[in-house]
Design goal:
Elements (H helix, E strand, L loop, with lengths): L1 H18 L7 E8 L6 E3 L6 E8 L5 E7 L2 E6 L11 E3 L2 E3 L3 E8 L6 E14 L9 E11 L6 E7 L6 H12 L11 E3 L9 E3 L3
Parallel strand pairs: 11-12
Antiparallel strand pairs: 1-8, 2-3, 3-4, 4-5, 6-13, 7-9, 8-9, 9-10, 10-11
């Protein structure tokens, strides 16, 4: 029993070291919440290609606003969600939202936990010139890392979820290393890992 407890203690200590930041003693963790637009408040669009707006609530009551137009999703967060850069950011390929959101949360012991980034698995439909591909469209998945406020809400990076076996780990690396210092509108989003035929980079609408 004593050996088992010792092993458990060592394992827990090792995990704490991995999660802790040497500079601040902070720890980073994840909480995943479902994203079901059927449970959100929907406002219909005014144009044929405008599917409208969905207002939802995420971790710790953080507002989520999604709009869909021209078969592309735009997802933003926070009290000013519709005015943040993320409200005009999407992927170049036709795409759709994921069914859940991973929130990256920092704890430093001196204040309550704070979500600083999200990771969502978006679906993509990329045209390909390959007769073996059904309907000439490759169905892909891209993990989109979004920075949360204060200081701006915007896309920080992208990972091809189908092409990389450790795609989630790569997305977390982008979030944990770069989200809090990323400058919306100035810094270029990161792309980690391999890119396959279903990968799609960023597209910014003129909203």
């Amino acid at each position: 029993m004593r050996v088992t407890r010792l092993h458990a203690f060592v394992a827990a200590a090792a995990l704490a070291v991995l999660l802790a930041s040497p500079a601040t003693g902070e720890t980073i963790e994840s909480i995943t919440t479902p994203f079901d637009v059927d449970k959100c408040v929907h406002k219909a669009g005014q144009e044929p290609e405008d599917e409208g707006e969905w207002r939802c609530v995420g971790y710790a009551g953080i507002p989520i606003v999604m709009t869909v137009g021209d078969a592309r999703a735009y997802i933003s967060y926070g009290a000013r969600a519709e005015r943040e850069p993320a409200a005009a950011q999407t992927l170049a390929a036709l795409n759709g939202e994921g069914s859940s959101i991973e929130w990256r949360i920092v704890r430093d012991g001196s204040r309550k936990p704070r979500a600083f980034a999200t990771i969502m698995r978006w679906s993509t439909a990329v045209p390909v010139d390959d007769p073996k591909v059904e309907n000439g469209t490759y169905r892909g998945e891209v993990l989109v890392v979004t920075r949360l406020g204060p200081g701006g809400v915007c896309h920080v990076g992208y990972v091809d979820a189908k092409q990389n076996a450790k795609a989630v780990e790569l997305a977390r690396e982008i979030a944990d290393r770069h989200a809090r210092t990323f400058r919306c509108g100035k810094d270029k989003p990161f792309v980690l890992g391999d890119k396959g035929p279903g990968f799609s980079g960023p597209y910014r609408a003129n909203k």
